[in-house]
Amino acid sequence: MSDEDDIILSELDDEELVQQMFDDLYDGLKEEIEEGVNILLERGWQPYDVLTKALVGGMTIVGHDFRDGILFVPEVLLAANAMKGGMAILKPLLVETGAPRVGKMVIGTVKGDIHDIGKNLVGMMMEGAGFEVVDLGINNAVEAYLEAMEKEGPDILGMSALLTTTMPYMKVVIDTMVEQGIRDDYIVLVGGAPLNEEFGRAIGADAYCRDAAVAVETAKEWVGRKHNQKSA
């Protein structure tokens, strides 16, 4: 491709630029996304609008195509990484402007389990949907979850397991939350290859999410419900 064919982002009008950012996100082009975010900010866009209209808008398309099997994990990770580049610029500005929050999630793989690709993907897709995500990493004992929930005050606790042997540990965490009288303060979402809906119900989780795209849709739905109850 010759240089003349290169799209110069700053020459596009707002609408064209947002469309181009959708494409760049889809293609996982981090530098282009960072440039696009900066251009919109220079043009006087509010940080929250850049987040929702350009980044979340673009990641929604990625999420749908991932759900429909058009995109696969490596491509989604690239898109999420590009999104992170844009988010890094917006985060301090969002804090400053007191932008509304979609919600906050603490996520981690359970004790005895060191798998993290699925969990990372969920975390990235949740950030892509505008959630604040605190990732506890792998091999988390019940204490780690409880501590994080107390410290971070999230709306959602997400737990992941990829082994049939570590799945039951999710119940240990939920049972402990029940004992401590804090179970109803949080939305508990669980996921991982060996799980299913029945298991999620049996251990007392609010929902089982079969993949990252479903996790985002489920999280939005539950947080929306939770906020409605509070204001009712």
UniProtKB/TrEMBL annotation:
Please tell me the species this chain comes from.
Roseobacter insulae
Reply yes or no: does the keyword Metal-binding apply. yes
Record keywords: Cobalt, Metal-binding
Extract the GO molecular function terms from the UniProt entry. cobalamin binding; metal ion binding; methionine synthase activity
Any single GO BP term: tetrahydrofolate metabolic process
One Gene Ontology cellular component annotation? Answer: cytosol
Q: Can you tell me which family this protein belongs to?
A: Belongs to the methylamine corrinoid protein family.
Q: Which residues form a coiled coil?
A: none
Put simply, this protein is called B12-binding domain-containing protein
- What sequence ranges are listed for the domain B12-binding? 102-232
Q: Which residues form the B12-binding N-terminal domain?
A: 8-102
CDD domains reported for this sequence: corrinoid_protein_B12-BD
Fetch the Pfam families from UniProt: B12-binding (PF02310), B12-binding_2 (PF02607)
Under the heading InterPro entries, the entry gives: Cbl-bd_cap, Cobalamin-bd, Met_Synthase/Corrinoid
